[in-house]
Amino acid sequence: xxxxxxxxxxxxxxxxxxxxxxxxxxxxxxxxxxxxxxxxxxxxxxxxxxxxxxxxxxxxxxxxxxxxxxxxxxxxxxxxxxxxxxxxxxxxxxxxxxxxxxxxxxxxxxxxxxxxxxxxxxxxxxxxxxxxxxxxxxxxxxxxxxxxxxxxxxxxxxxxxxxxxxxxxxxxxxxxxxxxxxxxxxxxxxxxxxxxxxxxxxxxxxxxxxxxxxxxxxxxxxxxxxxxxxxxxxxxxxxxxxxxxxxxxxxxxxxxxxxxxxxx
Length: 264
Known about the structure:
- By secondary structure, the protein is α/β, with parallel strands linked by helices.
- The protein is built from seven helices and ten strands.
């Protein structure tokens, strides 16, 4: 049997089968990778900035497709209503990112639009609340460009927020800001300034993304390639089995005595 398996004709069959198996398995893995990649979120088109007031309504939720959109807020910073959002980690890979791993603060300053409404703007990140960049609010009229984000919840952090010093909040919640900035019309959500204000560190925010659509056809292609690999093994087995049987029968015929051969 070993002599048959190592014969030149079967060695060629072994090598051919191995090559086919490797190719079919790799093709199947490639199609599977295409299928998995199709289900991942993809970056959506990033259109030109629009006025924040068009996407950040009053007393209503921001629409899902508006999250991450680039917007502009033109008006004046209301420095008297500036807040610090506590327990915020730095984005160390952002441009100008601080290498410190300690929690710091988002600097939240509202911009008063021409219609009198307030748009909360995260001007950037600082490590210490007494950083001079916190008080360096740009005076006069500004045109802030950034990405729109939805308001954050407060239920899970309410107890901790109660222990914060004056001028600090735990999250950027529109409902909480309406209470803190009493008598003001506050637009829902907030804008993360890009670039940051002054020497503040950039707060990273992702552009809008669309959900991927699984391409089941590629999964079927992957299964087909692996089925072909299994069929190649099946055919190899049958060819080898037939060759072994043929050689065994030939050896048995050669080993018969003349009398036995005549009787056969």
